[in-house]
Amino acid sequence: MRNWPVIFGLVIISLTLVVPSCYAVGPGVTVYAPSVSSLRVDRVPFTYNGSFVVQNNGHEENVYVCRASVDDPRAITWINTTPAGFVLSPGETKLVNFTINISGQKPAPGAYHFIFKPTRLPRNVEPYINKFARYISQADHYNLTIEVPGEGGSAESDDQMAEIPVVFDQPTYKVNLVQYAAPDENNTEMIEINRAIRINAPSSAYVGDQVPLSVSVFEGLNNRDIDLVVMSPDGTFYPVQGSNFTFTQEGRWGVLTMIGDQILLGKPLTISRNSGLQLVMPGMDAILLSVITLLLFASIVPIWLVIRGRRKQDNYKDIEFKAYIVRKYIDQFDAGQLKRAIALIEEEYNDLLDRNISGDRERARASIEELKTLSLLES
Q: What is the pTM of this model?
């Protein structure tokens, strides 16, 4: 092995290039804040235009929303942020602009604290234990303080400010639906509700197509009170009416689920123009698929049409997905919880059989049997 010094050198160079990029992967959201952290209001009207940069330092494309919080609810009307939402690929950055605008009468003297929180939305629900599902998002912060000077004792203290509750008006049927929402010490925010939700949307589509969008809800519950919202590349939000949505421009969109004023999930979706046949270098999967298509051309078209129609209506896919969630977090269930979870999934499967619903029954049955085997190993 006279060439071993060359090989060793190549290995060292490869590790030098690869290892730092691995360590660079972070939680998926980082804020590069400006040096300005406080402002002074001497006269009204008062306007300040600022900005900060958000970076996706994670390993996958994500949907982001820019939340903001205040310690005095009267100050929430002063803020305007644009864009309010966007999609970022790994390593990509976005400039977010904001405006603080105070008009009318001069506010009460004191310190008003603003926290801008660009938030990476989760794509999937996290552990579904007992009857609560967890939606965990990652956030970073930019803090800004506005000082309103005053004379004598007319200024309110920070403690007095913090005691003023922020109350959101919402329909009575949505009260107590959101069970818990709070940040922890790691800049994550967790929302727990009594339903586990999945966004059903493709990862790509074409301009002008009617794209099916929907949500699936576990435990046999319905999707009442769950709103599906689409976010355009420029950060505009559109409510989804019905089961289809027509995308009007190319770019990276986001599909979001909301309950009340809480955003739970976000899934990126790339919209492009259908310009006909495009010349691209195929990968091995594409080459293999082309060969199979040529060999079975006479029969593959009717078979594909049948399979496509079945996939659109295959209710057994939810059985598989529920089994997958339980299997993924099986170590967080005790024996009783695991037994009940398997029984609920099997009951739903049997109900589909009793109603003679078509679909991939074998895969669904296999996923249930796998869960039963794993439950025996766990016990």
A: 0.64
